[in-house]
Write a structure and sequence with these properties.
By secondary structure, the protein is α/β, with parallel strands linked by helices. The protein has 17 helices and 16 strands. The chain is globular and about 60 Å long.
Length: 440
């Protein structure tokens, strides 16, 4: 941040702001719009794409901007930007193709649509910041391959818990410690929550019921921790993560984890419920140098072997624009997969499902997601949560049972299925020693 504010101020003084395009003008997109237009020096939100352009116009209007043009062609969009106007459109491909947009922010949270946008952006040489852990956790590793080939950056964002964890991970690593646990602090976890139970909360905060349901039922945190695992090489200790409940401070929880088990797994991602400071994130790390252990104790981090580092908040819409600045100014990804996926989010029955049912979406009534190591989910052919929507059940599935590809008929013609098949072919999953099987 200290570097970014100086660099952004230089862009402002030079009259050369970073030109940002936003895709998705929902609750989070409107927050990002307000932040860029009202608070970020050296950056301009030049265009918003949304399936209903009037919703995009609303985002600008709420930010006090009235000079807005609706466009349907790339040339018209580029001209509006050159004239200093703001543009809205229903067609996200225009933002991907416009030559005078530096970076895109994808803020829809939709998997199939997000995949289409990501490929179009990469195809036209656009950097892409994802506020879409669901897409990232489903085909992020393959999208990173495509982005690398095209010479562009695809990254998760600052401000959301995964990005905050990664910033903290990088800090802890930079001062010589070895992170063994990346964690997320939650106030609630109930896998049976649904849009009906969450309707009042959603109304109070102006959010959609399915969005807040995905927070409450554990699906969202599963996607978030999966992409942290994929960016660090960590795993989960068990399906669904450990998820301890604890009402004290996170610093007091280091004794709950066995260091040698964490080392054997290469580190884990996890979450805790009820701990303070909520809704923050934390890293538990070790240091092998006795002299440095002495200094850590002096600085009140205790005697180890695990040392606790935490950030007590995440300020998503406030920080997301900084991700765009990092990409454009320093070619620095906030967080991206290292290579093959380490952790998967698998679909699990939220209710007793019946043969013939068509599965609804993330944060709805029928399924929730939970983390599983890919060395297990691959051989078992577990159904990724990001592919579950629209699948037809071939057989009954009882509540809390994970779904497999054998349980469903997958809809035809979806891009996300094509990308997932390509990802599975590109990355060969390791043998699972407990099963004696390999992915085919």
């Amino acid at each position: 941040m200290i570097i970014l504010d100086t660099a952004l101020r230089s862009r402002e003084e030079a009259g050369n702001p970073i030109r940002v395009g936003l895709i998705g003008a929902g609750f989070m997109g409107r927050g990002v719009t307000h932040q860029i237009t009202q608070a970020i020096t050296g950056m301009k939100l030049v265009a918003i794409a949304n399936r209903n352009p009037e919703t995009a116009r609303r985002a600008y209007t709420e930010a006090g901007i009235s000079d807005v043009q609706e466009v349907t062609r790339v040339a018209a969009l580029e001209q509006a930007i050159e004239q200093g106007s703001y543009a809205i459109t229903e067609d996200p491909s225009l933002l991907c193709q416009a030559g005078n947009i530096d970076v895109l922010i994808e803020a829809t949270g939709a998997v199939e649509f997000g995949a289409q946008v990501a490929l179009e952006a990469i195809r036209h040489g656009k950097h892409l910041v994802l506020m879409n852990a669901e897409l990232d956790g489903t085909v992020g590793p393959l999208l990173k391959v495509y982005a690398d080939r095209a010479g562009v950056i695809i990254t998760a964002c600052d401000g959301d818990q995964p990005g905050v964890q990664m910033n903290l991970y990088r800090f802890v690593t930079s001062i010589g410690l070895t992170p063994l646990l990346c964690g997320n602090i939650k106030g609630l976890q109930d896998r049976f929550r649904n849009p009906t139970t969450q309707a009042d909360f959603a109304r109070r905060w102006g959010q959609s019921p399915h969005m807040v349901t995905s927070f409450a039922d554990g699906t969202k945190i599963s996607f978030e921790q999966a992409i942290v695992a994929n960016a660090t090489g960590m795993r989960v200790a068990q399906r669904g993560m450990l998820g301890y409940e604890y009402t004290g401070h996170i610093d007091e929880m280091t004794s709950l984890y066995e260091v040698e088990q964490l080392r054997a797994l290469g580190g884990i991602v996890d979450y805790v419920v009820g701990a303070k400071p909520s809704p923050g994130v934390f890293i538990f790390a070790t240091h092998a140098d006795p002299k440095q252990q002495h200094y850590l104790n002096l600085y009140k981090l205790g005697t180890g072997p695990l040392y606790s580092f935490y950030t007590p908040y995440h300020l998503c819409t406030f920080e997301v624009p900084l991700s765009a600045a990092r990409v454009v100014l320093f070619q620095d990804a906030v967080m991206a997969p290292l290579g093959a996926p380490m952790v998967e989010v698998v679909a699990t029955a939220k209710i007793d499902l019946q043969a013939g049912d068509i599965l609804d979406g993330i944060g709805h009534y029928m399924t929730y997601g939970q983390c599983e190591n890919t060395e297990i989910s691959g051989p078992l052919k577990l159904l990724p949560m990001g592919l579950a929507q629209g699948c037809r059940l071939k057989r009954d599935v009882p509540r809390d049972q994970v779904l497999t590809f054998a349980d469903v008929e997958v809809p035809e013609g979806r891009l996300i299925d094509q990308l997932r098949a390509e990802q599975d072919a590109h990355f060969k999953l390791p043998k699972d020693p407990r099963l004696g099987l390999v992915q085919t």
